[in-house]
Amino acid sequence: TNEDESKAFAKANNLEYSDMKELAVKISKMKSELKKPRTVIITQGCDPVVVATGDKVAEYPVSKIAKEKIVDVNGAGDGYVGGYLAQFVQGKDEATCVAAGTYAAQYIIQRAGTKLEGKPAFVAKES
Predict the structure, then answer these.
(1) Is-contact 16 7, C-beta < 8 A?
(2) Half-sphere exposure (CA, 13 Å, Cβ side) for 99?
(3) 14 pLDDT exceeds 80?
(4) Known catalytic residues?
């Protein structure tokens, strides 16, 4: 989810938190039918991506894009999820999944609409 959606979720579920890392951990530890902690990912625009699974929480930096290059933020979240999951289903590590998600979101926001132009240049690191 993005930062705004996470804050709304916290409010709706009466979760108190001091920062996004704490909130991600609290959401991750909420009851799950899988009987294991969920993985919670909170994107924050150009601020670090927060990933929590149970008590384990990490932040991943996001490279800044010049404001004049940002064309349309529609589809950024969908692009992020697609990039993340494309690596996740291949068994890549968390850092690679986050990097792919960030790449895809940044690719999308630099274009009008949600169209793919050419072949993406993301290359996953070997794990």
Answers:
(1) no
(2) 12
(3) yes
(4) 78
Instruction: List the structure tokens of 88.
Output: 């996740």
- The DSSP string of 4-65 is HHHHHHHHHTT---SSHHHHHHHHHTS--TTSSPPEEEEEETTEEEEEEETTEEEEE-----
- For residues 84 and 100, is the Cβ–Cβ distance under 8 A? yes
| Nearest-angstrom CA–CA distance, 90 and 104 | 17
Specify the pTM: 0.88
Residue 127, pLDDT score: 59
Contact 104, 80 (CB under 8 A): yes
Decide if pLDDT at 52 tops 80: yes
Maximum CA extent, the chain = 46
- Strand 47-53 with 56-60, pairing: antiparallel
Place of tokens 């609409």: 113
